[in-house]
Amino acid sequence: MSRRRFWIALFIFSLIGQIAWVVENMYFNVFIYHMFQASERDIALMVQFSAVAATLTTMFIGALSDRLGRRKAFITVGYILWGVSILCFAALRVDWIAKLFPAAAESAAKAASIGVTLVIVFDCIMTFFGSTANDACFNAWLTDSTDETNRGKAEGINAMMPLVAILVVFGGTMWAEQDNAAHWTILFLIIGGIVLVSGILGFFLIDEKKQPDPAPDGYFKTLFFGFRPKVIRSNPDLYLSLLCFTVFGISIQVFMPYLILYYTEALHLSNYVLIMAPAIVLAAVATAFYGRLYDRIGYGKSLVPALLVLLAGYVVLYLFRHTALVFIGSLLMMCGYLSGMAVFGARIRDCTPTGMAGRFQGLRIIGQVLIPGVIGPEIGKLVLKNADKLQNSDGTFSFIPNANIFFWAGIILLPIAALIVIERVRAGKERKHA
């Protein structure tokens, strides 16, 4: 693969994939909140089902891509079907649901319940295609295509894309009214079309060499390879890093499903896009440079500052409501979050045994998505259990997120300090015996 084509492919597939994930992770919550009056329980349930779907998909497809020694077909076809599945969300409207399901026409509560159920089901289908294309195979391809000389740089670009994607989606939805079903339809049609086209481009941009299978002992042995005690004992750095990444992810998922709702419903920031855009740009630039710092100073020295910045963002967001301070807190939070993602991503790729990237994507997604996606929203749901509520025009009620989500996100982040100490002690003992 030419160097230029690699960087173009990395940019396009990382960015487009993250745009799709931003719509799912941040706007599906807003979508079912405004269109179907979803509760905090509904939102937590949607995130949890999606996390399970993402994990199972990544494990099975990642191992399959290793067995076949191919990534490109899964990425390209997966992105095309991912786009089609997003297009299907355009059909999820109360007026159309009422025509398909007579029970939905009986009351607003029944219509809302059916709508929430359909969104959760469609979300799992979309997650299957997205995790096949992005979580399992694009990430494995990226690991295959980089080494210790450029992995931090590549991961810095990859890690900044969620913020760039947030900026793109925020900017593209400035015109939209969140209570207007037609505007959601347009959003899903545009995003679905973009993802579909990117899959077609992949046939021309992505190149790969067939990967030799170092463990020709059957698909299911390959699937569960990373769970073997012998493999765990042989790769302690990988598993300790994954454990830290898991705690980090739980902290993020306590507040992330409710972040936009916190801005709009609790702080009444109708212009939150204009407020957040500069913070997103600055955080994205900082993250790109931070990935290079990992290449120079290593894992431990680059992780600690990222975590401290994230924690500082939590503190500011918890304590203050003034727009300027919310901007500062959001900037710190996003810088710490994305820098931490860059460090963990590069570290896990560095620790992944050569030629086995696909089968280890399941482990990565368990640490990055499944456990955080199940536990984090559940904690957020409990934190918001007694949150204030507002009455909608149709007589239903909606909850109002509060700043306690940032307090508990910060508390959960603290155990990583102990894990870092354990890892340094273990590394010191290894160097002493070397």
Task: Note down, in words, how this protein is organized.
There is one protein chain. With about 425 residues, the chain is mostly helical. It has one domain: MFS general substrate transporter like domains (Growth Hormone, Chain: A, Up-down Bundle). About 80% of the residues lie in helices and about 0% in strands. It is built from 17 helices and 2 strands. A two-stranded antiparallel ribbon has the order 1-2. Strand 1 and strand 2 form a beta hairpin. Helix 5 runs antiparallel to helix 15 and helix 10 packs antiparallel against helix 17. The longest helix is centred in the first third of the chain and has 38 residues. The mean pLDDT is about 85.
Mean pLDDT across the residues is: 83
Q: pLDDT under 50 segments (min length 5)?
A: none
For the record, the CATH architecture stands as: Up-down Bundle
Shape: globular
Q: What proportion of the residues form beta strands (DSSP E)? A: under 5%
For the biggest sheet, the summary is: 2 strands, antiparallel
What series of H and E elements makes up the topology?
A: HHHHHHHHHHHHHHHEEHH
Oligomer: single chain
What would a concise description of this structure say?
The chain contains 17 helices and 2 strands. The chain has 434 residues and is an all-alpha fold.
Notable traits:
434 residues; mainly alpha; Growth Hormone, Chain: A
List the helices and strands and how they pair.
Layout: H1 3-36, H2 40-68, H3 72-87, H4 94-100, H5 108-145, H6 151-172, H7 181-205, H8 219-223, H9 229-234, H10 236-255, H11 259-266, H12 272-297, H13 299-319, H14 323-351, H15 357-383, E1 389-391, E2 397-399, H16 404-413, H17 415-433
Helix pairs in contact: 1-5, 1-6, 1-7, 2-5, 2-15, 3-5, 3-7, 5-15, 6-12, 6-14, 10-14, 10-15, 10-16, 10-17, 12-13, 12-14, 13-14, 13-16
